[in-house]
Amino acid sequence: MKVVSFLPAATKMIYDMGLQDYLYGVTFECPKEAADQPKVVRCILEGKNYSSIEIDRIFSASKAQGKSLYWVDDALLESIAPDVVFTQDICEVCNIDTVCTETAVMKLSKQPLLVPLSPNNLQDVFECAITIARALGKEEVAFAYLARLQQKTDQILDQLRENRSPLKRVMLMEWIEPIYNCGHWIPFQIAAAGGVDMLSNPAGDSIVTPWEKIVKYNPEVLVIAPCGFDQKRSLEEMSLLTAKAGWETLEAVKNNQVYIADFDMFTQPSIGTLIEGIEALACMFHPRIFKADGNVAKKFINYTQSVQSLQSV
């Protein structure tokens, strides 16, 4: 069986479950494990270093014109002749959507099974792992994989209960300019880590959120994780936030509880990386109870400490 993944999250879960031998093609932004795989999907933003504002404008213009940011290497896809193609229909700016995928697949001599993965909440992402494994005839692998991950979230919940930890009032930003709140599965991650984001949109799209509303909400913890940005990239644009009126008055700022986090723990819906996100959030929300180690420790930084480190250099 030959599989092509048009979705980085699906690619990540395929590798996490040890099913990569079925994989014959991926997108340009799939995780490092798939670096040697043929790139079937490309993007007009690939290799460019646009600002948040520029990316938003490009996407808005593309959407208004009915165009996609992504394109498929039709010749490569035809040569692979896949049996299964995984795609998504959640965000047309983050990844190629099902409509574009269907258009590319219709041209193929051999028609593959098209499997859309479109989770809305955290439980849906768990189900996606089962859907992937089932399509490959390896459903039992998914159940073992998910059981291991469930143990991690259970341990976090047990620790929160044991310490009677109150919920922290938090906000997670999915974009800096304009500011977007968080949606879909991220509010559920926040809840699992011992927090509540009253500005979020659980199981729905993230939306533009006025700065005045954020100042009034006054989060205790602020997590900045723009979609597609790692810590270094986000730090380059922090001045867009710190220059805003009322920044210094935020409780999160006054108490040094502003964090910069890698996007792939949140807006990259592989269940393994989302569980890492829950572990990281628990460390941000309740640092007296949870300490980051291993890979999780590398995935986020305290903004104040990072600024102080740069100033001391």
UniProtKB/TrEMBL annotation:
The lineage of its organism: Bacteria, Pseudomonadati, Bacteroidota, Sphingobacteriia, Sphingobacteriales. Pfam families: Peripla_BP_2 (PF01497). Residues 2-289 form the Fe/B12 periplasmic-binding domain. It comes from Pedobacter zeae. This is Cobalamin-binding protein. InterPro entries: ABC_transptr_periplasmic_BD, Vitamin_B12-ABC_binding. Coiled coil: none annotated. It comes from the Bacteria.
